[in-house]
Amino acid sequence: MSKNYIFSSESVGEGHPDKVSDTISDAVLDACLSGDSRSRVACETFVKSNIVCVGGEITTGSKFDYNEVIRAAIREIGYVNDDDVFHADKVFINNYMTRQSPDIGQGVDARAVEGKDTDEQGAGDQGIMFGYACDETPELMPAPIMFAHRLGRELTKVRKAKEVSWLRPDAKSQVSVQYVDGKPVSIRNVVISTQHTAEVSHKEIREFIIERVIKAVLPANMMDATTEYLINPTGRFVIGGPEGDSGLTGRKIIVDTYGGMGRHGGGAFSGKDPSKVDRSAAYMGRYVAKNIVAAGLAKRCEIQFAYAIGFPKPVSIHVDTFGTGTVDDEKIRIAVEQVFNFRPAAIVAQLNLLRPIYSKSTNYGHFGKVDDLDAITWEKTDKIEALKAAIS
């Protein structure tokens, strides 16, 4: 890639249909983990109009009312208006959950069985996972996706605080950043589409969003008279949420990760317990990459590792600093393997993942959240000194 370019990333609000689905799936996961930390959960959700369908495989000792958990999640998002077709108290819920396959269970469980090479806990599936970090923002995340998330969070904050009466839950944001010599220097355009009530004018929406949302959270030194603001560019966004579009768990994986700046292995996160390496190993990858950058070993770092289902050790580990490393990438990889343990059970222990913390991760990116490190443990930078020592 040229060192001079424009890169764009998008975020979506809690009321976007796909995020509604993610939110429900993670709410069910947390309900399971609240009563049984060893729950095995793969919950997927589909929403459309006034219908919620949940399906997947769950083995848990927790006792709870699925319908109440689902309705509470929808209520928290804000689908409670009388004219909402998709309404927390009125949706029809269809539950198609079954128990986890014992064939999968025996591969994941820490026990010996015929045909399994080890009695350790194995990976819950095969697959490749990526972690990424860079020094573009204080969160060590790419600037375009962090700026897009900031807009989404602020829009939700304003809506839930009822600063204006016309905002509704569905929303999307997008930011295009100009890079010069590989560094973010300016914001070229900002796109926000937000659902609203019918009576508000487009002029009022545009002025409010630019002054109260965009200018409140994006760096002023990166915007100027040439920055373009595209606010509700269709002119009207009254019908939204699951009434306007269907939603499905796991369909916003680029929003959930690095906005396209870092690669993605393809596995979704929400609704999956940490025995699923799609989620836990991706969190581990972020943890490792962030500590590498925080330690000053690179300005930009991507780590990839891969698993085989039922097998405890990753089958490969690869580190790439894109030429920004202060030492050779191979030295960093060796240090990483000394400091971190990539076995699934060890990942769960290192990041303390057997807790009902996942609803905190669902919206505005699973990475870059630094205001609750007790829950979002993969954002900690507590391995800096250990990495430096291993390198030396």
Could you walk me through the main structural features you see in this protein, from its secondary elements to its overall organization?
The protein has helices at residues 17-35, 66-77, 102-108, 143-160, 202-217, 241-244, 253-256, 277-294, 329-339, 344-351, 384-391, and strands at residues 5-12, 40-48, 51-59, 92-98, 127-134, 167-180, 183-196, 228-231, 247-248, 300-307, 316-320. By secondary structure, it is an alpha+beta fold. It has a four-stranded mixed β-sheet, covered by helices on one side. A four-stranded mixed β-sheet has the order 4-3-2-9. It has a three-stranded antiparallel β-sheet with strand order 5-10-11. Strand 2 and strand 3 form a beta hairpin. The longest helix is centred in the N-terminal third of the chain and has 19 residues, at 17-35. The chain starts with a strand and ends with a helix.
Short account of what is shown:
The protein is an alpha+beta fold.
Please, how many helices? Answer: 11
Distance between termini?
A: 32 Å
Q: Write out the strand line-up for the largest beta sheet, numbering strands in chain order.
A: 1-6-7-8
The share of residues in extended strands comes to 15-25%
Globally, the shape reads: flat
Total beta strands: 11
Order of helices and strands: EHEEHEHEHEEHEHEHHEEHHH
Poorly predicted regions: none
Fraction of residues in helix = 25-40%
Radius of gyration over all CA atoms, rounded: 22 Å
Which structural class do you get from the secondary structure elements? alpha+beta
Q: Could you describe the largest sheet, including whether it forms a barrel?
A: 4 strands, mixed
Question: How confident overall, as mean pLDDT?
Answer: 93
